[in-house]
Each structure stands twice: as C-alpha cells, then as structure tokens.
Amino acid sequence: MTAAVIAAAPREPSYLAYRGRYSGILGWIFSLDHKRIGVMYLIAQAVFFLVGASLGVTMRLQLMRPDNHLVQPQVYNALFTLHGVIMIFLFVIPSLSASFGNFFLPILIGAKDVSFPKLNLMSWYLFMIGAVVALMSLFTGNGPPDTGWTFYVPYSIRTSTNVVMGLTGVFIIGFSSILTGLNFITTVHRLRAPGMSWFRMPLFVWALYATAWIQVLATPILGITLALVVVERLAGVGIFDPAKGGDPILYQHLFWIYSHPAVYIMILPAMGAITEIIPTFSHRTIFGYKAIAMSSMAIALLGSLVWGHHMFVSGQSDVADITFSLLTFLVAIPSAVKVFNWTATLYKGSIVLEAPMLYALSFIFLFSIGGLTGLMQGALAVDVHLHDTAFIVGHFHYVMFGGTGFGFFAALHYWFPKMFGRSYSDKVARLAWGILFVGFNTLYFPFLILGWLGMPRRYYTYSFPQFASLEMLSTVGSWILVTGILLMVGNFLHAALKGARAEDNPWGGVTLDWKIPSPPPLENFEQIPVITQGPYDGFEGQAPR
Amino acid sequence: MKRDDMNADHQHHEHPAISYGKFVGVWLALLMLTALTVAASGLQLHVVGVVTAACVATLKTLLVLYIFMHLMYEERIFKIALAVGVATLAVFIALTFADFPFR
To answer: Do A320 and B84 touch (CB under 8 A)?
Structure first.
C-alpha cells in the first residue's frame, strides 16, 4: 500500500469520539493516546500563555509613564519573574514539541503511537505537577520569587522569597522535558513506517528529533544546577555564594549550558512547523530538504556550545569571551540556511495567503529581526553597551514570540482542522493575524530603540522623559496585541464548538497527516503505510525547479 | 526501518549470568577506589589531585555501567548512546575551562 491510498480506508471513530475504559474527563487524563496527550498539553499551554501574557501587560502598564507607581517595586520584581518562568518553562519550552509534536510525530512517520505511551502520559503529569508547584510559589511562603526567570546567584540564595518552591517546580518540569525527548528519539528510531528512510521523514520530524537530543542531554544540567541552589539555600553549602567561598559565575555557566540550548528547544519545532506550512501553501516541494534537515541538527549541536555569550560582562575570561563570540556567529549559519531555503521554496510557487501562511511568513520576518539583533549582541564590544538593556528584551521577544509564538500560532491554524475536525473562520483568522502583527511590532520594536538609548531591563520605573513616548507606544502595542490574541482565541473557541466540519485535507498538503481522516482515528492508520516517495513529492501541477 | 527488523530489535537479548563473586569483587574495587579518592584529596596535589579524582570517578562509573548495569552485554547502539552523553559532558567541561584558568 502506498501513502496515497490511506484515505481510502474505511472510517473508524475519531480519537475524540472513541470510548475506552473511561469516559468524560477521566477518558482524557488516563488516556495513553498520543493525540489526546498532545491536546492536553495544548490546552494547558494556552492557559499558561494567557496568564503569562496578563502579567506582561501589567508590566507594560507600570512602565507606561515615567515615575509610575501602579504596582509596588517588589510586586514588579515578582511580575517579571513569574512572566518569565510561566512563559519560558510552561509555554515556550514545551510549546510545539509537547503539543503538536505529541500529536503529529507518530502520524508523520506512519506510526500508531509513540514508543512509550505510558511514559508519555507520565510526562504530562510531571509537567502539570511541576506547573502547580511553580504556581503555588505565588501564594505560599514569603511571597513569589523575585529573582527573574534566570534565578541568578547570589541573590537567589539570599532573597527571602519563595525561591525553593519555584525551583522545585522547574526541576519537576525538567523531568517531563527529558522523558518527552527520550520518547521522541526512540520513536523516530524505532517506529518509522516501512520505506520511511531518514531522508523521507517530514522536516517537522527532523526538527523534533534535533530538539529531543537537546532535551535529553542539556536538561539534566539545569536540574542539578537548580538542585545545588536549593542545597545552598537550605544547607548553607558554599557552592555559588562568594561569601561562602562559592563561585557565582559557575552558576551562570551551568544555568546557560542548559538555558541557551533551551532557546533552540523552543525555536526548532517552530522552524519545523514553518517548514511544513511553506511547501503546502506554495504548492511546491521544499527547497533544499537535506540542507534543512542537517541545519536542524547543526543548530542543536552549535546551539549547545554558545552559552557563554550571556556572560560577556559577567567577569568570565577574555579567552572565553572570544571563543563564545566566534561560536555564536557560527550558529547563525544553519539558521540562515533555513531562512534562505524557505524563501527559495516560495520562488515560483503558487502562493496562497491563508492564515497559516500569513503566520509562517511573519515568522520568517520576525525571526530574522530576532536573529540579526542576536548577532549584534554576539559582537563583544556592542554587547557591553547593550547588555541588560531593553534591547535584550526586544531581541528575545522577537525570537521567542515573533519566532516560537508566531510559529505556534501558524501550526495551530495549520493543524487545527486536522486535530479537531472543525474549520475556523479564515476571515477572522486573517484579521486577528493583522492585528497581532501590528501589535507585536508596536510593542517590541520600541524595546530595541529604548535599549539602544540606555533603558535598562527589569527596572521598576524611570525618570527620563526621553523614554516616555516609546514606553507609551510600546504599551499601546500591548493593547493591540492582546486584542489580536483575544480575537484569535475567540475564533478557535467558536470553531471548536460551532465550526463547520473540516475536510480531511483542506490545504492540499501531501504529508501523511493529510492522508488520514480529520480528526484522526484512535490508531491513526487502518494499516501501517508503506512509504514510496519523499515527504513533499506529489503537489499537483508542480512546476519543475 | 522495516517492521520485521523492529520486531527483531524488540526481542529480549539473553546474556550470561554474572556470578555473585564478580559482583562482590566489583563492589570491593569501588570501595578501594573511593578510599583512593579520599586519600588523594588529603595530599594537596592541586591539579594532579583533580585529575586523579576525575580518572578514578570515570573508572568507577564504567565499572557500574559495564558490570552492574550489564552494558558489556548490550548492543553497540547502547554503547554509542553512552558515548554521546559522555562526549557532550566532555565538551561542556572543556568549554567551561575556556573561562576558569584564564580569568
């Protein structure tokens, strides 16, 4: 059987309609089905995203005017810490990998599920338990952590706020990430359908595979580092605190050994989703398949070797500064390979600007700004000027929100009809995209200018009137952005409840996910498909390249 | 990979039983190596002491992995997986030492 005839198989009940041993909510939280687990991640992440965004908007209100006192300074410190922890650890790091990865990895390689379904469910439980513990730090002990999401020592050792509970939550979430990575690596190695060689895998799978290796190899380092902070706080052992003979820069090394690769855990799956969307809406096979696949692995490898660029002004040695600066410039190469291949795929394509494609194109635009501003900071002399300014915040949000966030939205618009069997309003989706895109740039571009002018990050307030207009503009941008987000969420909720039934292949995609019913049946395929062609072969009327 | 290959891979691999004597021998070796680490730390050997401790720890880890965790009887892919982890750790440590000795 070839992949092309999978759709001819008789329809089984969808994974949404399937009734197993349990029904109702229990049918979800005890389900071992990778699709249900993916949807549970998706819902949890959406909730955390909205909570994190609310905290962000509150910060913007505080910074709207000079000498503003909307919230107390300690509350502001807690706000940026929680905004960071929630967005980074509960939304962006698991984002596409845990939700869309869980849902589509087995489908895209022609498997019925992941290699270890029970471990997969356990990963979700660990994620939720970690999230609850992290959020409990708000309401227990001496108040929420105020260290920033980086938990830098020695402050995180000395502050009386509830750092231990926050660290414990992140520690538990780390286990979830490791186990998901382990599951995905094993699944890709062991469960590919007959005929699906490594270079017949869709590129989203390559991205998930590269991500999974980072999750497995780098996350344990964060776990042990955070555990050492807890040990130092509780037992007074001098590991990082210089007052006790410790080395605070060692903490920064250990933290960033994980947390810089974590940026690639966040962005690689989004890049993978974009790589699926662009050929579908260009009606062209992807340009440079092997280059994109290998660039994912190269990003995973090189991205793990650049952590020291967070520490150029921390007091690390000049040798380390120069080494990490060089490596930082090198990691731009595989990222650029992807951008050039995406744009080359568009060339001479029959481009259709539906909502997923609009998000995908804006991903390329925004990620390019994020990436190039990152290179500016990779230059040692420039970084001295920009370090710890709003420029960093702007750069980071262009990568994380403009990149991963827009990639997440692109993937959601692309796969929503497949996941839920319902269609959303394309008109509303495009309107929401327009508002989001304008709001995003109005919110974050002023950060780049403010930082260049010298506005520090994480400052509670400021007295310089020259910052006022840009700060106000940025705050107005946050309102526009929130409007777009609410419109998008409303569109999806309406579609899920009252949307028209979606076709099996509404976009004309050619990968395996578009050859099974919408929503997919419990075990995805009536029979395991035999793969006889490349993942992006088969677009009708495809012009020769 | 074909399904048949996968099924073959999933089959349980038998390996020879390890005698209690061997386990006890390895345990004694681990104790002796721990004593060696403690003794070396008391000699104030500075860099040589650190290298000695790292080598002893590596040897102990290998003993546990190969004997207690049966890695010596496993397929090559498991040994490669271990090597990837060790290599990653080695690179992380090496790059960190681009900082400490040059401050």
So the answer is: no
